[in-house]
TrEMBL record:
Organism: Hymenobacter algoricola
Keywords: Membrane, Transmembrane, Transmembrane helix
Protein name, entry field: DUF2029 domain-containing protein
Lineage: Bacteria, Pseudomonadati, Bacteroidota, Cytophagia, Cytophagales
Membrane spanning residue stretches: 20-44, 65-86, 92-113, 133-154, 201-223, 264-284, 300-319, 325-343, 350-370, 382-399, 411-432
Keyword Transferase belongs to the record: no
Length: 434
């Protein structure tokens, strides 16, 4: 009897994570049904409504293969794994969308189980509005799956998972651009920990080889199909990706609907820069004084490095636009890993939360809300808008310490679901910019 009793918590723990995911799916289905019945959601995913934005480029690769133009936008800027998998399965637009949803939910549940996420945090992260891209024929679900594999490979020291994850990411997106600096920084911090030099170098070298192999495979494929091995690089200039100095105030073509999410992604990127600078300073200090470097898990360091690379890439390559910042940071497992790591840290004092709130309100000046005006808003309206965004951020940071934790968590969760469905509805109608 005692052995049976001891096994019950383990069984409950194991199945709690998929049960929370199923509960989330049921709540989302009920909400979209109600909003559609009342006319607040006007369009549901279908073979016609899903044919929007970049889906047309992926579908073009799926049906006719790659094409390259030296003077205009072309599908050679996109990576092959999603369209080729789509072709292999023979699914339609609805079918590949259902495949993406299933792949994402399975990957997220596995990640939540491995990280032992609290149930409320699991629900909050599952409701992230940027996850609307998991419901459409985009690369987000595949990318999420392979990033989950590489991060859990790091966490559990499974080298094969790490290699397969990096290779899959490199065939899904231009991951080497963001991953190579992150990988090198992770190896630097990891190697400084006692007895970890050989392990860090082994994982670093094999990781670089996997990224190089993915780039080589894409280049070979495009060379054989369009005669230009670097089409995916050369095509970027026609998509507005060129190196320029950051311009301020920054703008967001997505409009006011998505601005708060992209702005919060900038906040996370800036926080990641601060964390990486702190780790680098301790690394330099340990080299000079022969001290041990703080033992930060490599998957956390890699996640921080990725956020830094995304925010710098967008600021320097999108001419002052933060378009897609939230999508590239929040619709990834890196957010989940960082949120789980923060949840394990000691509780903050309320003075620290006040300092974070004040610094965040200063950060919003990147949009020119104090001195240069903001969109069609007055200064007071802009302060109210960004004040609400700051309060939303603080709720995530302080959810463990809130007096009415359950109630506030569920309020944010429902708000997130409504915004997710609002974004999806707009995307399906073709009027919400990505």
């Amino acid at each position: 009897m005692s052995e049976f009793s001891a096994s019950v918590p383990a069984v409950v723990t194991r199945y709690r994570y998929p049960l929370v995911t199923v509960l989330h799916l049921l709540l989302l289905t009920a909400l979209v049904s109600a909003l559609y019945a009342f006319g607040l959601v006007q369009v549901l995913p279908s073979e016609s409504s899903l044919r929007q934005w970049d889906v047309n480029w992926y579908d073009q690769i799926r049906t006719t293969g790659y094409a390259y133009s030296a003077t205009a936008t072309s599908n050679s800027a996109f990576f092959p794994l999603l369209p080729y998998l789509w072709r292999f399965t023979g699914l339609g637009l609805v079918g590949i969308s259902l495949f993406n949803v299933s792949l994402f939910l399975s990957s997220f549940t596995w990640l939540a189980y491995q990280l032992r996420l609290p149930a409320r945090l699991q629900l909050l992260l599952l409701s992230t509005p940027s996850l609307m891209f998991m419901i459409v024929p985009y690369t987000e679900a595949l990318f999420f799956c392979f990033v989950t594999l590489l991060l859990l490979g790091l966490r559990r020291r499974q080298l094969s998972w790490w290699l397969l994850g990096l290779l899959g990411c490199g065939l899904t997106r231009s991951a080497s651009t963001m991953f190579t600096p992150s990988l090198l920084f992770m190896v630097l911090i990891w190697a400084a920990q006692p007895g970890q030099l050989r392990t860090a170098l082994t994982w670093g070298v094999t990781g670089l080889l996997a990224l190089a192999a993915s780039v080589g495979m894409v280049a070979t494929l495009q060379w054989k199909t369009i005669g230009e091995p670097w089409g995916f690089v050369l095509a970027q200039k026609h998509w507005g990706h060129k190196l320029t100095l950051p311009k301020f105030p920054v703008v967001d073509p997505s409009g006011i609907d998505m601005l708060w999410l992209d702005g919060l992604a900038v906040w996370l990127g800036m926080a990641a820069i601060g964390c990486c600078c702190w780790l680098a300073w301790h690394w330099l200090k340990s080299r000079r004084q022969r001290l041990d470097t703080p033992s930060t898990p490599p998957e956390v360091v890699f996640s921080l490095g990725y956020c830094v690379c995304v925010v710098l890439f967008i600021l320097f390559f999108q001419s002052g636009s933060i378009w897609n910042m939230g999508r590239y940071i929040f619709a990834t497992p890196f957010l989940v890993v960082l949120a789980a790591s923060l949840a394990r840290q000691p509780a903050w004092s309320w003075r620290r939360y006040a300092q974070v709130a004040a610094a965040t309100m200063v950060l919003w000046q990147i949009f020119g809300i104090y001195t240069q005006g903001f969109d069609n808003f007055s200064t007071s309206q802009a302060l109210w808008y960004f004040g609400l965004a700051t309060a939303y951020l603080l709720t995530y940071l302080a959810w463990r310490q809130l007096r009415w934790q359950r109630e506030i968590t569920m309020m944010v969760y429902v708000f997130n679901l409504i915004m997710l469905l609002h974004f999806l509805d707009g995307w399906l109608q073709g009027y919400v910019v990505q």
